[in-house]
Design brief:
The protein is mainly alpha-helical.
């Protein structure tokens, strides 16, 4: 089997040329524009190819046109096979360009890379005066909380440096999570622009216990009042949360299968993400009604719902509870009605400490349904 050719490294942020899988392709090279967006874990969001060509050097020409605003659909057909001399010239130019760029990048501090990332991510200067989004504020706060790294050379940082900063931070667990998100996003940006040799953020973890798991569940009398007022849209949503156990942020993009009657979603941890929880029969009508009316669980923001929740609880004569208390309520109900501990952990998205459960545990939807239906509802 013939070895695949090696091509010059493209300049940072230039785009990419990828050899596609499969044989006998007329145009085996996909030409892609520069990555513009990453998810919270630093994974690039795929972009559509500009075009497909039969030669890597044609792809480079297309990217050059694209960056200069000179490309139009189908223009790659104007290109003929490049000569060997042209290939050598392009290779030499790229080699010198990349070497100089790498030397410059190696001198950049954590602060400088953050400033570049911030402007790229939010398309505005770091010190802009316009109203900031919650994501902007979160990343700015996370940056302040890792001040020990600000003056350090970004390329020289290791996983131990990043870990030490999180371990030494005396903020709450939620603040440490934001630092980790910032790490992921900065390293995604850095890798795309040759500012780091390796993504060290994926080796970092939070060793502090999750302090946001503390709270007070709704009492039986509280739940009875909520059920009596289930026609109230806020009480309706509180009940949905109390009998499903997700964090409030998970409901912003929750998937729901009404035919098979289950939720799919979750945030924060590997065990919690994208998990499936059966819809308890008691809240199924509430779920259907809410989706019919709004098309989602939180038509506004989670913060808007939180304010409406505090106001509604006060009007109903129920003492103040946070949205997270609904998650504690689900846990309490599971304990009260004898839901198997491991099934409760699965539905809450808690990680298992023992290898057997962590690696091999898999519960079918109907088995989980039989457990969740143990929870009785008096209304």
């Amino acid at each position: 089997m013939a070895k695949r050719k090696k091509y010059p490294k493209l300049p940072n942020g230039y785009g990419s040329i990828k050899r596609l899988s499969g044989r006998n392709r007329t145009n085996p090279y996909g030409v892609y524009p520069p990555t513009k967006e990453f998810d919270l874990n630093g994974i690039p969001v795929p972009r559509k190819a500009i075009c497909y060509v039969d030669d890597w050097y044609k792809g480079f020409t297309v990217l050059t046109w694209y960056r200069n605003g000179e490309y139009y659909e189908g223009r790659e057909k104007e290109l003929s096979s490049d000569s060997e001399e042209l290939k050598r010239q392009i290779t030499g130019i790229l080699s010198k360009f990349n070497q100089g760029q790498r030397e410059t990048a190696g001198q950049k501090t954590f602060e400088e890379v953050y400033q570049e990332y911030y402007q790229w991510k939010f398309q505005k200067p770091h010190n802009h005066t316009e109203k900031k989004t919650s994501m902007e504020n979160s990343m700015r706060a996370a940056y302040k909380n890792c001040s020990a790294l600000h003056s350090r050379s970004f390329r020289s940082l290791t996983a131990n440096d990043l870990q030490e900063t999180i371990d030494n931070c005396n903020k709450k667990h939620s603040s440490l999570e934001l630092i980790l998100i910032l790490y992921h996003q900065m390293y995604a940006y850095a890798e795309a622009n040759d500012l780091a040799d390796k993504d060290y953020s994926k080796f970092v973890k939070i060793n502090k216990s999750d302090d946001d798991e503390h709270g007070e569940p709704f009492s039986a009398s509280d739940l009875e009042i909520l059920w009596k007022h289930q026609d109230n849209e806020v009480a309706e949503m509180i009940l949905i949360m109390c009998y499903s156990g997700f964090r409030i942020s998970a409901y912003t993009d929750m998937k729901t299968n009404l035919e098979e009657r289950y939720f799919q979603g979750g945030v924060k941890t590997a065990a919690g993400k994208n998990r499936i929880v059966p819809i308890h029969s008691a809240i199924l009508p509430l779920v259907q009604r809410r989706l019919d009316q709004y098309g989602s669980y939180l038509p506004d923001s989670a913060q808007t719902f939180r304010k409406a929740m505090y106001k509604t609880l006060n009007l109903l004569g129920i003492k103040k509870h946070t949205p997270h208390d609904a998650r504690h309520t689900f846990s309490m109900l599971c304990d009260k009605y004898g839901v198997a501990e491991n099934d409760k952990k699965t539905m809450l998205g808690h990680a298992f400490s023992d290898v057997t459960n962590k690696v091999y545990r898999h519960r079918e939807l109907e088995e989980l349904r039989s457990q969740i239906e143990k929870i009785k509802v008096c209304h």
